[in-house]
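Pasting as-is:
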Amino acid sequence: GRVVVSGASPTADLAVTKTANASQLFVGQAVTFTVTASNNGSANASSVVVNDQLPSGFTFISATLSSSTASYNSATGVLTIGTLNVGNSVTMNLVGIVNSSGTYTNTASVTADQPDSNSANNSASATITVCRAGSSSPSFN
C-alpha cells in the first residue's frame, strides 16, 4: 500500500497595526503615529517592508524604531525590516508636525517575498482631524 500525507506548508502571516496619539490636533502640533509589523504565521518572512508615508500637510520630524536592524526613509515612506521571524514584531513611532487643517488618514501596509496566509491584516490606518490654530471644536476649517 501507499500512504499519502498532505499538510499545509508553513507560511508567513504578516500583520500591521496603526494608531495615532491623538484624534484631534491644532495646526503646528506634533502627532505620533505608531505602526507595528508582526509575523503571526508559521514561517519566517524575508524582505519585509512597510510603506508608511506621512500625508501631505505634515512635516517629518523623526522615526524611532524598536529594531536596530530596521531603517526608515522619510522621503519614500519605506520602513525596511528585512527578516521578520515567527512571533516577532517591529514597531516604529513616526512623528510629524501638522501644517494645515483638515482630516488626514495615514495608512501603513506590509509586504514580504513570501506568500501571506492572511492578506486581510496587511494594512491599517489612523485618521486625525486638524483645526486651525486659534479655533475650537467643532470648527475644523
